[in-house]
Amino acid sequence: MDRLLRDPRAWGLMAAAMLTxxxxxxxxxxxxGIEARFQxxxxxxxxxxxxxxxPSLLVAxxxxxxxxxxxxxxxxxPLLVGLIIYALAGTAGLYLNSLEAILAxxxxxxxxxxxxxxxxxxxxxxxFEGPERGRLMGYQxxxxxxxxxxxxxTAGALAAQDARLPFAIYGLAALLLPVLAxxxxxxxxxxxxxxxxxxxxxxxxxxWQGVVAVMAIAAGLTFVVFYAxxxxxxxxxQHEGLGDPRAAGYVMGAMMASAAVMSVVSGWIRPWLGRxxxxxxxxxxxxxxxxxLSIGHSLELAMLSxxxxxxxxxxxxxxFITTALNVTPARHRGLITGLVTSAIFLGQFISPLxxxxxxxxxxYSGAFRIGAFAFVGLAVALTxxxxxxxxxSAQAARAG
Length: 400
Fold this sequence. Notes:
- Helices cover about 80% and strands about 0% of the residues.
- By secondary structure, it is mainly α.
- Pfam families: MFS_1.
């Protein structure tokens, strides 16, 4: 057994990361039911889709500030406060009586997610080094997807009873609060920096700012395209005669199970595939999955397609954050994780605003086909950009 899995801090970090996947995807099977419940609202179709991505807007706006605070105040306080906000705002959909009010609670949920995600990612960098850090990011991604598999399939069953019931799942944050408070101590490095106790060793890679920028932009664009899955697939399935909420739960569950497996594998194969090969392989798998959705008319093909999408995301996601952490100075880890987090969630928020016009003009199949071409384009663009950045970093290292 990997010794990381005997470290309670690793399990605490995985549990915290698991909550972030719930922030959006958990209520996916509820969307058609929520829209039907508020059908008298003329904006129901748009507002229900925004319920998925509303937290992303607040995360995108506040994550860099939350990351900066974790560098100044330490990691634990932002994490624990984020858990409280998450539990209160996440469960509010159980009793709020208008789409606008539920949307507001989803925005507040984003504040909790920003605090949790930036503090948690910074703690990964503080607690672990080198290959262990990369493996933990893979395990963490696996944990988020296993959690997502359980939560989304459970949400599908709950939504079949009442569209509001999946909001109760967010209460898990309240149960995790005392557990995480006990197993995640404030790291000495973060404690020293927060108290102004001096600078730590500047272990940055030459040209690290450019690498971080590339990773942030790639992560954001990836999620603009990827998030067509949770925001559009339930309606696509309904259009194909698969309107049972459990079908959406199965399809999303296949994606998350595949992503979980690939995330674990990615920590071991990333040294072989390299900084460029890992995300490019992921993009090609994402493209294949979107192509499958564009031609599929059965539940089985939809599940296979989303499994390919999950595998692709499982390769890409750990790479974006791990690469940024590996090249960044230790004293800026909170800020940098906040910037990458902001890019990811900004992409999530933009996604339905970009995909809905495509669906309106091209239909679901046409929109997914455009997504497949977009991922091929991202694979090419990332390859060219990182190769150029590698040359710049090498030149800077020689000059230094």
